[in-house]
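User: Okay, second chain of the day. Same drill as before: sequence in, structure tokens out.
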Amino acid sequence: MAMTKDELLALLEQAAAEGWTELDLSGQGLTELPEEIGKLTQLERLMLGKGKKDEYGNQAWDNTAVNGKWKWGPLTIGNKLTELPDWLTNLSNLRHLGIRI
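Assistant: Same drill. Structure tokens below.
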């Protein structure tokens, strides 16, 4: 079940205070990423949900930059993200961005 905005912000505040290196926001119905995630500079893994597969069973997402923004293919399952914000590249410790099956 998806968190409310207040619950999500409280979770992000806790993650920042406790120095979390991993955050799983899969299945939260997000349409955009809260800017507060950009403050989690220690973050190494960010899980956003599962990506859809195309009719041939191939991963159906694309990380092409369009007009300076990361654009993604079909909507992710559990979240409704269609692009990722530029500030995400400022998370220098981020090693895994999970949006796959």
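The helical segments are 5-18.

User: Thanks, on to the next one.
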